[in-house]
Design brief:
The protein contains five helices and five strands, in the order H-E-H-E-H-E-H-E-H-E. With about 160 residues, it is α/β, with parallel strands linked by helices. It has one domain. The chain has a five-stranded parallel beta sheet, covered by helices on one side. Strand 3, helix 4 and strand 4 form a beta-alpha-beta unit. It is globular and about 45 Å long.
Length: about 160
Amino acid sequence: MLFAIFFLVFLPDDHKAIPATFNNLKILKLSDISLESFEELSSVFRLMRSCPKLEEVKIETVSCADNDTSDIMDFLKAQDYSDVLLNRLKNVTVSNNIGLVPEMTLIKLLLEKSPTLNRMVIVWGAFKFDDVLLRTMKELNRFSCASPNAEVNFESPYIK
């Protein structure tokens, strides 16, 4: 089963739980997700809350690095994620990451709420490797992780 951007934008904008539970959904791939959009970011979290047997998540983001994300961060700080626990999540891939605050917040939440996580792959989306990548890697090393076995890897299509 594949949920993509065209599905997420039709979810109610009330930030409440999705009224259905996807009990048999084990793999979730979300494409063209703008983490700078209230609606899409909220929908990603609500959708994951509704998938209790989720084992693998692949998120392909799209970003506009020049956007002001302060409103998004205020929204994220106001949310209560204490009820999010991804007990079966084992593998996560976040593609097109360029180190923006909403991207890092999503990664942090996935690490903190996934006690059985084995592997997280962060696919760097920038054409060059600079101090932003180094800062991002250092910040990720400071994040707490619920799984003692989790491995976080960086990949890039620009480096062989």
